[in-house]
Automatic annotation (TrEMBL):
Presence of keyword ATP-binding: yes
Originating organism: Actinomadura montaniterrae
Name used for this protein in its record: ABC transporter ATP-binding protein
A molecular function GO annotation: transmembrane transporter activity
Source species taxonomy: Bacteria, Bacillati, Actinomycetota, Actinomycetes, Streptosporangiales
Gene3D superfamilies the UniProt entry points to: P-loop containing nucleotide triphosphate hydrolases
Length: 228
């Protein structure tokens, strides 16, 4: 693979993922090729059980593929040692889940500062960055609120800001609007896509909601682990 092909964003080449063995063998991904450029938003659509979450787990270096290679931000994740893979994941990848999974005792602002804390000492620049991200997602006025004082949509907005805190090359969102009504779902997806484009973050958005696909630059469909 050339340096240009993996310079930034995400590249999956010939990725196959199998779970189990023998009678219980499941092929969750079957020869998947996918490239997402910096600032590009790709939506992945497909029915339940088609391999969408498996795709994100492999792209996010949480699971090693059975075959094929994954490169994130120019680094070959599949060839990396487990320690290096963890470091790449922390520094290079942001995740947004179905529910924001915020820590109940922390304010919105502290959810973001925790990310900086985990990476080392919290600097003035980190505080400014957290405040800038909270502003970008429209949460400045509620920066001191804890999760139980926020609506589902607000929690997802904090989750998106948190995922962007470490300036990831890659943002992975697994059905981030599943818990929201249609109107809020559109807002959250528009926000996610806008931030990705502004910040040059390669973004993969998994959704089974056809109404949200318009926010993406490109839509790919997956069925039985195969991409169209
Ligand atoms: P989706 O997110 O599109 O619903 P998944 O990636 O979760 O699909 O699942 C793809 C296939 O892999 C399904 O057949 C599912 O049952 C199977 N699968 C997912 N995770 C595991 C696992 N940890 N062990 C065994 N099979 C799994
Ligand atoms: Mg899933």
């Amino acid at each position: 693979m050339t340096a240009t092909a993996t310079r930034a964003g995400l590249t999956l080449s010939g990725v196959t993922l199998r779970y189990g063995a023998g009678d219980t063998l499941v092929t969750a991904l079957d020869g998947v090729d996918l490239t997402v450029g910096p600032g590009e938003v790709v939506a992945v659509a497909g029915p339940s059980g088609s391999g969408k979450s498996s795709l994100l787990a492999v792209a996010g270096a949480l699971i090693a593929p059975t075959e094929g290679t994954v490169a994130v931000g120019g680094a070959d994740v599949t060839a990396a040692t487990p320690a290096r893979r963890t470091a790449l994941r922390r520094a290079g990848i942001g995740y947004v889940f179905q529910s924001a999974n915020l820590l109940p005792s922390l304010t919105a602002r502290d959810q973001l500062l925790l990310i900086a804390h985990l990476a080392g000492r919290v600097t003035r620049e980190d505080r400014d960055r957290a405040d800038g991200l909270l502003d970008a997602v429209g949460m400045t006025a509620k920066a001191s609120r804890r999760p139980h004082e926020l609506s589902g949509g607000e929690r997802q907005r904090v989750g998106i800001a948190r995922a962007l805190m470490n300036r990831p090359a890659l943002l992975l969102a697994d059905e981030p609007t599943a818990a929201l009504d249609q109107h809020r779902a559109r807002d959250v997806v528009a926000l996610l896509a806008g931030q990705a484009r502004d910040r040059g973050t390669a973004t993969v958005l998994v959704t089974h909601d056809e109404g949200l696909l318009g926010a993406a630059d490109r839509v790919v469909r997956i069925r039985d682990g195969r991409m169209n």
